[in-house]
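Hi L., both proteins are below.
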Amino acid sequence: MEKFNKYALPLITILVIYLPTLAYIPVYVYLALIPIVGYLKFDVIKNWWKKDKKFNSNMIAVASILGFAFINRLLHFNISNPLSIHSDVFLLPVILMAALVFADKKYYTLFIACVFIEILFGVVQFSIGESSFFTGLLNYYAFTDYNLFYNCKVFGLSSNSSNFALKIFAAIVLVRGLKLQFKWLLLIKLVLYFGIIISFNRAAIIGCVVYESLYFFILLLKKKHTIQQSVVLAAVVLVLSVNYKEVKRQFLRQSVGVQSVISFSEDGRTLSEKEKLELIQLNTDNDQYLARILELYANSDDSLAKMELLNQYLKNTQQKRIHSGRESIWKRYTDFSLANFLFGNGSKRLIDPYAYHAHSIYLHILSMHGIIIALLFMYFIIKNINLKNAPVIIAMLVIGIFQSVIFWGISALDIVFYSILLSPFNIFED
């Protein structure tokens, strides 16, 4: 049993946490965490109680969230939106215990190893000009033009580039918990940051900048910074400064010249050469260009899905870029949240007719629960932030402005987030 706990259990746990982040693997695999944390529950709670001076107040905060959510669910039981383990608040105890199990070097190492394997697949995809090996994915596309990273971002083994990038971000912050020698840390982070570039999720990139900036700032306050760290930071700042215009162009998705349409994989349909030429010729008239594109993709019934597909499959001109749809998504979720300020959607995830999620953790939790439970969640987070975990937690909260990175109910990123928030995670130890 001791060997099982030491070797087999960590591997099984990581597979249960990581597999649902991959394409075609159902999220219900996360439910296997229930028997795992049930098997370990006594040790987990005992260790948490010993190490966490805020244990009692944290338990009160969690109980308050669950209690208010239960009342909210009862009061709005007739809401028709289906429940999902991806957002069910009553799985919070499971995810918190899973997070505390995860808060260990051996789990960090296994998670980072999984991310490394996925990056290797991403590198191959980037080199052969395919977003994914899973060509059946709705947002799969091929590319030959490397002018913009945004238009040639890869998915690894995930269902989209966002999931891939956010796992890489998690690996970037976890790697410092391994307390490696500087040269090995630098080498691993170079690989991880290359993965961030080829997956090119701008929210994750912003999160990395916030994380690294806060980390170095706190090092300066603690007077722990080294010459090696200062040299690396100076080199990065110099490279970015010299290439400022190119960095800005990539981040704002400003194409150079007219880019052709590469392919369209919905129902296996590919645009004809005549249609490609027509789109390029229409690029000088933005309204006509957009109208013609929507006409070409009229076989899709979901207007927001069209916009998403167009962002993935059409290489737009410098004059016209189709936005990601966040503006309209945020407006709809904001309008709903204001109209249902106290109770939200009865503690069920709001499923917008045109969007799978809110693309913001704040709108997600506000629209789902209302202001009372949303404030309880934020209180629970803020009370557990300290100087040791602040760079990671703040960076993830910044990413959350643009991306539904946490508050999924149960997900790999939620587990990483809570493990860092509640454990004695310290990225500043020698």
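That was the first. Here is the second:
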Amino acid sequence: MIKNKGGPIEAVIQKVVNDGNHGPYAVATCEGLKGSITFSLEKPVWNEKDRPNRGDIVILDDIRKKRAGWRAQKARFLRPSDEK
């Protein structure tokens, strides 16, 4: 569920594409948001050392609606410090 519509949200990775036309990307879904959220797996969007896998929970931020769906401009793994 989207707890704070204006801030970061938790989402679950549904698919990782390593050879997309515009580079590697991931597709995630979030309860409370219709459709999926896509984000790049390259910097500056994804700054983690490892790439996510299907089922991983990530934090997405700066989400924008595009003609083809939602896009996150910032993404990272969920960490224990996020569980407050």
